[in-house]
Write a structure and sequence with these properties.
- By secondary structure, this protein is of the alpha+beta class.
- It folds into three domains: 1-121, no CATH class; 151-250, Serine Threonine Protein Phosphatase 5, Tetratricopeptide repeat, CATH 1.25.40; 258-365, Immunoglobulin-like.
- Helices cover 42% and strands 21% of the residues.
- It contains 16 helices and eight strands.
- A hairpin with a 2-residue loop joins strand 7 (344-352) and strand 8.
- Helix 1 packs antiparallel against helix 2 (35-43).
- The chain is globular, with a radius of gyration of 25 Å.
């Protein structure tokens, strides 16, 4: 008899045991803390709340039971921050600042700078950006020069135009130049944690201002490996779209001089939940080495009977003169929260340096 287990829901990071931990640590740093009242409030209806709602609940319940001014409460929360046993959970601390401290800008921004070292204040700082964009960006420009990587990352991540799980920053969406100084300061950061954020920030901007991003990156010292890393990841959406300038930035702007053979998907007929394997051979026809960016697109059948293309990364590599390479990629065709699958013929297109150089297909049957 086989059994299957599923991972606990993300919201369970704020479960009853975690609330007990928070209450215990609060009493350790502030003996007068009313742990019983906090737990009664925090556990009420907990099962029905999402992970972000649970995080907010902790902040709200602390505010309810702490008989202190905002300034005095901050001192208690600063003391408890290093004692929280989860970086994600610790985000209730900057949430407290965003909820109850926007009346005292300098004190609260300094608190966010401190709390972000234990998790992230990326969601909280956006409320200050929405309240006073110019003043908050001025502080965040200084954060981009900080010695601590968590603080530097906050400068980039907090100012992302389209940060997931948060509201969009419409002024920066409309004018990415507002945060350009932050990105320039971090364009060769030696921390991967920071570089990922800079790349994601720029990838956000490519949705509305692709030319702005390309012009900025084209002016970077792309011989520097950290800048080159950010450029590759920042341009990933444009590269998938076959944008010639984005491909040129990563050295694949020229048309691929190759022949494609043995292109197939196996098995050709599947049921939902089964895997497919795309395989093919690439033969160089060039007299010199060439950089190849190989992706593939699946035309997913929609409920209406039409199709919607989704591009997947496959491989980026240098193919020597007149050499060949056999490549393959397996993918399970299963239901996702972001995509439903329907029976029918699904075309698969091979894309090399942004150009479609072959097509095949597989069929999903009921």
């Amino acid at each position: 008899m086989s059994t299957t287990t599923s991972s606990p829901a993300l919201k369970e990071i704020f479960n009853a045991a975690r609330l007990e931990h928070i209450a215990s640590e609060m009493r350790a740093v502030y003996p007068a803390f009313d742990a019983k009242a906090f737990l009664n409030l925090a556990n009420d209806g907990l099962a029905d709340l999402s992970v972000m709602q649970r995080m907010a609940r902790v902040s709200e319940c602390l505010h309810e039971v702490l008989p202190l001014s905002y300034e005095a409460s901050l001192e208690v929360l600063r003391a408890v921050a290093p004692r929280v046993n989860s970086m994600f959970v610790s985000m209730f601390l900057p949430h407290y600042v965003a909820s109850y401290g926007r009346h005292t800008f300098e004190l609260s921004m300094d608190a966010l700078k401190y709390f972000t070292r234990f998790g992230s204040a990326e969601f909280a700082v956006r409320h200050f950006l929405r309240d006073d964009l110019t003043r908050t960006l001025g502080v965040m420009h200084d954060w981009a020069l900080d010695a601590n990587e968590h603080v530097r990352r906050l400068a980039s991540e907090g100012s992302r135009p389209r940060l997931p799980w948060s509201f969009h920053l419409e002024p920066i969406q409309a004018n990415p130049e507002l945060a350009a100084g932050i990105l320039d300061a971090l364009k060769a950061d030696d921390s991967l944690y920071v570089r990922k954020s800079v790349a994601n920030h720029l990838n956000d901007v490519t949705k509305q201002h692709p030319d702005w991003v390309l012009e900025r990156i084209e002016g970077w010292p792309l011989h520097e490996r950290h800048s080159a890393w950010i450029a590759r990841h920042a341009l990933r959406s444009l590269i998938k779209q076959g944008n010639p300038r984005a491909l040129a930035v990563i050295g694949a702007g020229a048309r691929a001089q190759v022949e494609v053979s043995e292109l197939q998907v196996t098995p050709a007929v599947i049921r939902l939940g089964e895997p497919i394997t795309l395989s093919f051979k690439v033969q160089s026809t060039a007299g010199q080495s060439q950089r190849l960016v190989i992706d593939y697109a699946i035309d997913y059948v929609k409920a209406s009977g039409g199709t919607s293309a989704k591009v997947f990364k496959l491989k980026t590599f240098d193919l020597p003169a007149l050499a060949s390479a056999s490549l393959s990629r397996s993918q399970q065709i299963r239901e996702l929260t972001t995509r439903r699958h329907y029976a029918g013929r699904h075309a698969v297109h091979l894309l090399i340096n942004g150009e479609r150089l072959g097509s095949t297909a597989f069929e999903i049957v009921p």
